[in-house]
Write a structure and sequence with these properties.
The structure is a single chain. The chain has helices at residues 2-30, 35-57, 65-83, 87-109, 114-134, 170-193, 196-206, 208-213, 218-244, 254-267, 274-288, 296-310, 316-319, and strands at residues 144-145, 153-155, 158-161, 246-247. It is mainly α and 326 residues long. It has one domain (33-280). It has a two-stranded antiparallel ribbon with strand order 1-4. Strands 2-3 form a two-stranded antiparallel sheet.
């Protein structure tokens, strides 16, 4: 057991070093600084998808994560532009706002199961978009633009985080922040999956009635898991608004919510790193098929269906056969 844990720690450390050191060096050598935005997007999308993975862990098909990403983006943008709040403070606030909203929404809808919960959650993204269009504080269809870049963080005269506006390449700074957030997210996800609460959540996925009969507070666990899921969606959305310096009602749509779900399926629902791998493959797979022109969507959909039929446990089942939540 100790040897296995050591291997995982070393592997995770090497992977993080590769993202923080090797990738920037490679981008610098090739001069493709535009890749920072692409890789930052993949990292943030994997964080939002990780939230969907949590709801799958309690046996719920969540197709409404786009709603919380949109909420998080607007909360951060409004606080930064209208009230001058530091972006770094809005990041957790956006997540907490989405978590509280998800508790209020989740209390009634989490009683539903299967396709019924999926249908209701699918509507949430469209409801969030319509609210963003209608509410004056969100500026309607015009959205919120010219969002200031994150300011620096200093303590006792020591600068820990520089002012992004003073940097020659703010995208590199966003990339570093996104990678660190992604690392924290999946580390937390791993700890959750291997904790007592994680095991109880998994029992809900298998049989809620049996879990309830042995004293598990299933209503509490469902709400907590959904709140954590929405928190990640809000944080990811807030980061997206900052790097884009804008947020619109159409920034996160129903199609995005579907993709967040597909990321989890494609990577593997039984693996913590499933959302990360699924996001990477889905994001770049779509771009690779761009040359197919009008057949892009047809080929893309066919490949996804075949992969899910051939690999029902996701792509990670090829590399980690027989392992779950690893």
């Amino acid at each position: 057991m100790r040897k296995s844990s050591s291997v995982r720690i070393v592997s995770a450390t090497l992977f993080l070093l590769a993202l923080l050191v090797a990738v920037p060096l490679l981008i610098s050598a090739t001069g493709r600084s535009d890749l920072y935005y692409t890789l930052t997007s993949v990292a943030l999308l994997s964080i939002i998808s990780a939230g969907v993975w949590i709801t799958f862990y309690i046996g719920r098909i969540n197709i409404g994560q786009g709603a919380y990403a949109l909420m998080g983006g607007y909360v951060s943008a409004i606080l930064v532009t209208n009230y001058g709040v530091s972006f770094w403070l809005t990041l957790p606030l956006a997540g907490l706002f989405c978590a509280v909203a998800s508790v209020l929404i989740g209390l009634p809808i989490l009683r539903l199961r299967g396709v019924y919960f999926a249908m209701v959650s699918l509507v949430l993204t469209e409801v969030a978009r319509l609210l963003a269009l209608a509410m004056p504080i969100t500026n309607g269809a015009k959205g919120i633009v010219s969002i200031p870049l994150p300011t620096g963080i200093s303590l006792f005269g020591i600068t820990f985080v520089p002012d992004f506006a003073s940097l020659a390449n703010p995208r590199f700074a966003f990339y570093i922040v996104a990678v660190l957030l992604m690392a924290l997210c999946f580390l937390g996800l791993y700890r959750l999956a291997h904790s007592r609460i994680g095991q109880l959540c998994q029992s809900l996925q298998q049989n809620e009635e049996l879990a309830s009969s042995i004293g598990v507070n299933i209503a509490y666990l469902r709400v907590v898991a959904y709140a954590l899921s929405s928190f990640l969606g809000g944080v990811g959305g807030a980061m997206f608004a900052s790097i884009s310096q804008s947020i619109y009602p159409s920034s996160f749509t129903v199609a995005d919510s579907v993709n967040f779900m597909l990321n989890c399926f494609l990577g593997g629902l039984g693996y913590v790193l499933g959302p990360m791998l699924g996001t990477f493959v889905l994001y770049f797979g779509w771009d690779v098929l761009f040359q197919a022109g009008e057949f892009q969507l047809l080929i893309f959909s066919t490949v996804l269906i075949v992969l899910m039929l051939v690999l029902p446990n996701g792509l990670l089942s090829l590399a980690l056969p027989g392992k779950r939540s690893g």
